[in-house]
Amino acid sequence: MASHLANIYGTEQDRVNCAFYLKIGACRHGDRCSRKHIKPQFSQTILLANVYNNPAHTLEGSTLSKEELQKDFDRFYEDFYIELCKYGHLLELHVCDNVGDHLMGNVYARFEWEAEASKAVDALNDRWYGLRPLHSELSPVSDFREACCRQNEMGECKREGFCNFMHLRHPTKSLVSSLNASQRLSRRKAAASGQDTVGEEMGWTPSAARANGGGGGSWRDGGDVGWKPTRQ
Ligand SMILES: [Zn+2]
Ligand SMILES: [Zn+2]
């Protein structure tokens, strides 16, 4: 690619490629966008579109306290973290709290290897979560700092949930450290026993969310096999 083209690739000046799709993996025009959305053939990042339903946006959920909403979200985050670890080395997991159709409840996961991401996409397209079939695809997003709304991080975004950059919902910090530690331990154990990925037999430290009555169990395969993490 000529250098003058490389400089504008995926920027606002690029008249061919959609900057939003490249940076955020979703754009509000969807398939009707006048610029190209070139789906990557290989990527470390996958997108699961419209999966997280924040109860705060529903009638039944409007009465929940801030703590209850956080607990609900932590349970969701943990469910996906544990499931995604089965396909490879999970490096990042992000969930959008936007309310616009193209970003609402989007889950993005970045793996160490492209092959792991491809395996996850294939497997997850056969799965259900929360009574709905999942839709999974490889995503062009590589840098989540670029994809996130800076104003939102400073609490100043005027577009709020309708913003076209990611507004992430953050899990409780101690949950993330505990999940990261569990993944490290399981990967070490799996490597020692000659497996290339962590299986379901690994032990996870139960999180506060689950210990306090969180059930998980929202997963379903094509068949009727409910997926549950095995715990020590
Ligand atoms: Zn677009
Ligand atoms: Zn914003």
TrEMBL record:
GO CC terms of this entry: U2AF complex
InterPro entries documented for this protein: Nucleotide-bd_a/b_plait_sf, RBD_domain_sf, RRM_dom, U2AF_small, Znf_CCCH
Pfam families: zf-CCCH (PF00642)
Annotated GO MF terms: RNA binding; zinc ion binding
Zinc finger (C3H1-type): 12-40, 143-170
All copies of domain C3H1-type, residue ranges: 12-40, 143-170
Keywords: Metal-binding, Repeat, RNA-binding, Zinc, Zinc-finger
Gene3D superfamilies assigned: 3.30.70.330
Keyword rRNA-binding: no
Region of interest (Disordered), residue spans: 186-232
Family annotation (SMART domains): ZnF_C3H1
Every RRM domain range: 44-141
Gene Ontology BP, a term: mRNA splicing, via spliceosome
Name under which the protein is recorded: Splicing factor
Organism of derivation: Papiliotrema laurentii (Cryptococcus laurentii)
